Amino acid sequence: MIGQEKLDRINFLAQKKKTEGLTDAEKSEQEILRKEYLEAFKKNFRRQLDNIDIVYKD
Fold first, then answer.
1. What whole-number distance in Å separates Cα of residue 40 and Cα of residue 17?
2. 8 found inside a domain
3. What pLDDT, on a 0 to 100 scale, did the predictor assign at position 57?
4. Rg, the chain, Cα only
5. What keywords appear on the UniProt entry (predicted)?
6. Boundaries of domain holding 42
7. Distance, CA of 12 to CA of 29 (rounded, Å)
8. Which of 41, 49, 53, 26 has the alpha carbon at shortest distance from 9?
9. 3-state secondary structure the chain
10. Is residue 39 domain-resident?
11. Cys-Cys crosslink for 26: which of 6, 22, 50, 56, Cβ 3.0 to 4.6 Å?
């Protein structure tokens, strides 16, 4: 799971990119953080799908 601190950093970098632009180091950091976030999202989503039970009404 990705922490709130990392989510805040992702949001900060996204806002900064829109307003004033990012340095090369910040662009690299943003890419790494986004990859971490997407991996955590995919794992969580897969876990949710694995816990779904389909019940047929007969």
1. 23
2. yes
3. 79
4. 17
5. Cytoplasm
6. 4-50
7. 12
8. 26
9. CCCHHHHHHHHHHHHHHHHCCCCHHHHHHHHHHHHHHHHHHHHHHHHHHHCCCCCCCC
10. yes
11. 22
Q: How many domains does the chain have?
A: 1
Does residue 32 lie within any of the structural domains? Answer: yes
Q: What pLDDT does residue 2 have? A: 83
Range 8-46 burial, b when 16+ CB lie within 10 A, else e: eebeebeeeeeeeeeeeeeeeebeebeeeeeeeeeeeee
- Per-residue pLDDT tens digits of the chain, which is 58 residues long: 789 999 999 999 999 999 999 999 999 999 999 999 999 999 999 999 999 988 887 7
The CATH number that applies at residue 36 is: 1.10.287.540
Asked if 30 and 10 count as a contact pair (C-beta separation under 8 A), the reply is yes
The answer to whether 10 and 34 are in contact (CB under 8 A) is yes
